[in-house]
Write a structure and sequence with these properties.
Blueprint: E1 2-5, H1 12-22, E2 26-35, E3 39-45, E4 58-60, E5 65-67, H2 69-79, E6 86-92, H3 100-110, E7 115-120, H4 123-133, H5 137-151, E8 156-159, H6 163-174
Parallel strand pairs: 1-7, 1-8, 2-6, 6-7
Antiparallel strand pairs: 2-3, 3-4, 4-5
C-alpha cells in the first residue's frame, strides 16, 4: 500500500491525473467538489464503465458538515475493480472512517493483490473537517484511532513534493 499526502491545493489531484495518463489497468475513485449554495463532494469512478449514481457523500454549509456513509460506500466499493493492477482511492482518512463498514472495507483493500494508492487526508484538513462535523468526542477518538490503524504497515508514504519518486516507484511496480 502506498499513501500520498499533502495540504489542500498542493497538487495531489494533478499528480493523480498524471498517474492516470501514464498507467493502464487502474480503478478506484477520484473526489469531485462542487460549490454552490452548499459545497458537495462526490466520488467519481476512474473507470467509465463503473456507472454509479452521482450522489454527494459529504456536504458543507457555513456551519456544518454532513456525511452520508451509504452514498460513500456504494460509490467507493462500486468503483474498485478487484482485478485492477492499481487501485486509487482519492481522499481517505476523514469522516468515512466513522463507519465500521467502510473502515472494514478499507482494511480488506490493504490486503488486495493490487497495488493500492490512497490519497490520505492530512491531519490539518481532518481537524478542519471535524470542527464542522459535530461528532461526539468518542466518535472523534475512533476516527483518529482508525486513521492510525489504516496507516499501520504502510509500505511507502509520499508527500506530493515527492512526485518523481512516486511515479518511478509505480513505473517499477507496474512494469
Amino acid at each position: 500500500m502506498i499513501v500520498l499526502t499533502g495540504p489542500s491545493g498542493s497538487g495531489k489531484s494533478t499528480l493523480i491525473e498524471r498517474i492516470l495518463k501514464r498507467f493502464d489497468d487502474v480503478s478506484g475513485y477520484r473526489t469531485r467538489r462542487e460549490t454552490g449554495e452548499k459545497t458537495a463532494f462526490y466520488l467519481v469512478p476512474i473507470k467509465p464503465e463503473c456507472d454509479l449514481p452521482a450522489v454527494p457523500f459529504l456536504t458543507f454549509d457555513d456551519h456544518r458538515a454532513r456525511f452520508f456513509p451509504d452514498a460513500f460506500h456504494l460509490a467507493a466499493a462500486g468503483s474498485v475493480l478487484q482485478d485492477s493492477r492499481l487501485i486509487i482511492l482519492d481522499e481517505v482518512g476523514g469522516l468515512e472512517l466513522t463507519s465500521e463498514v467502510i473502515f472494514d472495507w478499507l482494511m480488506q483493500l490493504k490486503d488486495s493483490p493490487a497495488l493500492l494508492l490512497m490519497v490520505f487526508k492530512s491531519d490539518e484538513n481532518c481537524r478542519r473537517l471535524l470542527a464542522k462535523a459535530e461528532l461526539s468526542p468518542e466518535a472523534e477518538d475512533l476516527l483518529w484511532a482508525r486513521r492510525t490503524a489504516l496507516l499501520a504497515g504502510v509500505g511507502r508514504i509520499y508527500d506530493v513534493d515527492d512526485a518523481a519518486q512516486l511515479l518511478a516507484y509505480l513505473a517499477d511496480r507496474l512494469a
